[in-house]
Design a protein that fits this description.
Helix content is 48%, strand content 0%. It is mainly α. α3 packs antiparallel against α4.
Amino acid sequence: MIHELIHHRRNPTRFHVRGYIEEGTTTTPFDMTALNGLSRYHLAMEALRRAPRLRSSAGDIIQKFEEKLREHREWIREHDEDMPEILNWVWSGGQSARTGD
């Protein structure tokens, strides 16, 4: 499928595909993105790893994001809901991500 999407495009190695992995479990919305490697942390780490000018200085940030994902896994296993910072996250424009207010 990916070959059809990038056929005849310049530099096809610049494309990186992510998708949904069905595990047959019920979990929170953020945990589903984390389990599928699609969370904000995963995507930011991937971008940092692929940006040549940032690669040398990205290690500390990537480590912080990996720790945040470990913290998330522990939290969700204990509380069965996303961490408060995820649940209460607000768009910088002042709109709540949860309610759209």
